[in-house]
Amino acid sequence: MKIMENEKLLKEFPPVRTADWQAAIAHELKSSDFEKKLIWHTEEGMAVKPFYRAEDLEGLACVDKAPGDFPYRRGARPAGDWRVREEIDGVDAEEANRLARAAVAAGTEGIAFSEILVEGPGELEKLLTGLDAVPLHFEQADERFLRMVIEWLSGTPRAAEISTGCDALAAIEFAAEIVRDAPSGFVPFTIHGEAFAEAGATAVEEIGFALAACVDFLATAVERGVDVSRAAAALEFAFAVGSNYFFEIAKLRAFRMVWARAVESFGGSREAARARIAARTSRWNKTIYDPHVNILRATTEAMAAVVGGADAVAVAPFDACYKAPAEASRRLARNTQLVLKHEAWLGRVADAGGGSYALETITDFLAGEGWGTMQEIEAGGGFSKAQAQGTIAQKLERARAACGQAVAIRKRVLVGTNQFANPDEEALDRIDTQRIKADVRGASVYEEMRLRTERHAAAGGKTPRVLLAEIGDPKMRAARSNFAGNFFACAGFEVTTRRFKKAAEIADADAEVIVLCSADAEYMNLAAELMPELKALGRTTPVIAAGNPENAEELRAAGIADFVHLRSHPVEFLTKWQERLGIEERLLASSC
After folding, report:
1. For residue 398, is it within any domain?
2. Which of 440, 541, 548, 586 could form a disulfide with 455, with the two C-beta atoms 3.0–4.6 Å apart?
3. Residue 272: which residues within 8 A CB-CB, separation 6 or more?
4. What b/e readout covers 442-463, taking b as 16+ CB neighbours within 10 angstroms?
5. What is the pLDDT of residues 450-473, one digit of tens each?
6. Residues 467, 571: one domain?
7. Which CATH number covers residue 223?
8. Number of domains in the chain
């Protein structure tokens, strides 16, 4: 009976051919260009279509594999759960231990000590008290520390894993020695893919560079007589997860595939080819203004890491980019993952995105392009040589410049910073000026500009008041007022919006800058009326027109000082007007 009901239901939804979908889209677009309107050309070089069908999966590798099956496209584990990791900043052993134990009691399942560097076995014992069953990661680790851990583990076996952030390629002879001596449950080295992402690398570059570093390590280890499976098992892979949701999911899936193939090509075991991935929410896109938006960013990033199959996920506190995180923000970060695990039940499904036509296609693209990037580096002599010659740094510099430009012109949106800023917000009294410079962040260029406005006010100056004078054409005045208000708020200017019937009324208003918000055709008459009124009142208030009218030169001759529009470069324009209004760079100590 149930089967008959399903068949009846399906008859109401007959299959639709791809050609029919394309015809329907062409009809709706009318004369518009399909390529221009609906194809998304990504930084990775992929042309993302508006829809995908089952036929797009034809020819893709290992789509039919189950989670946990080689080459681990659908996850390195058959189960969907992950480990909630929390980063502990404390540098004192007792304090770091206290914070770690409190985090575990509150639901954390793994600890990453991000700053502490243990001096001796006694201090290590003190740090690990009460954490015997908790997987631990030591980001700061040197040769002395690794040897100390190996010696300590030989006399104090642990059920839970210990890993470190030590660079596998920093000293290859030492690395080979450690791999030979490392006991089970100790993962001594990390390949830092997140360093590439935070420096501006695309998903393809992050995969390709990380894989090239891995291949270099395996090759040099094997040359020194180290078993390839043992060398592969000595690695953890760290990745940053950003806001490009589906690409971030696909990035982790793709890396597992190419790493598995690399290990296989060296003759390693399939078990050793399971990538151990630790993901962390990105630092690059976090902001000091409207900082609670960082919680939303971190939530989607954590979801991407989980759906992508990360083994451990760390969510940074929302305020970590501008001060030492408070207990409340650490709790929010921790609970973000606990909600995803225990309330959203993301841990109950292995590879939740598996079979998605778009996601599988993106995964395949990133895997292929990432492998190609690795091959290019190998053809040039390998990762270590490319790094030593500055080739990697040059590629990252170009990528970083492109990302910075995209933020500067607001092609890449950071909500609350370069779009939809709150002009009433102040940040100067809550930031640690050293901390905000510790990481490369996309928002920095806007934050520096806005902090300049705040420092000016703190030193006794006045925050410029921008009057958005709406007048004339109802449709254009509202649209241009909204645009201009959003634009000037990014520099921390005080923004006031008023509607006027006559230009003379505008002249009486109190403001450091007047922005006329009307239709292009009305600006000449408005200028002809407003400028004499201002002069009569003895005022030299600069007047800006919102828009890019064809008669801009005539309007300049009539007294209009500038024009703000979609093609205006926000940072250059606002910095220029800061200078014109007397806002200079001032260095004030933070209260933090």
Report:
1. no
2. 586
3. 228, 229, 230, 232, 233, 263
4. bbbbbbebbbbbbbbbeeeeeb
5. 999 999 999 999 999 999 999 999
6. yes
7. 3.20.20.240
8. 3
